[in-house]
Amino acid sequence: MNKCKLKGFKDFLKEEEGMGTVEIILIIVVLIGLVIIFKNQLRSLVESVFEKITSDSNTVMS
């Protein structure tokens, strides 16, 4: 039983179906690029969301 678990762990380490480092780096680069491109729109969206949260929380607190 112990050998079976060890063999399964070795097979898991040799498996190559997962995401590689290159794919993860490419995804991060694309996300950073999108943030840079849409920086102004994202900033205005976040500001409006926080303004809405602030105004609604003031209403609840009153």
What does this structure look like?
- With 62 residues, this protein is an all-alpha fold.
- Helix content is 85%, strand content 0%.
- It is built from three helices and no strands.
- The longest helix has 23 residues, at 39-61.
- It is elongated and about 65 Å long.
- The mean pLDDT is 83.
Assign the structural class, choosing from mainly alpha, mainly beta, alpha/beta, alpha+beta, or little secondary structure: mainly alpha
Mean pLDDT: 83
* Uncertain residue segments: none
For the secondary structure, the number of strands is: 0
Q: In whole angstroms, how far apart are the ends?
A: 65 Å
Count of discrete alpha- or pi-helical segments spanning 4 or more residues: 3
Sheet with most strands = none
The outline comes out as: elongated
Q: Which oligomeric state applies?
A: single chain
Keywords for this entry:
3 helices, 62 residues
How would you concisely characterize the structure shown here?
The protein is mainly alpha-helical. The chain has helices at 2-14, 21-37, 39-61.
Topology overview:
Layout: H1 2-14, H2 21-37, H3 39-61
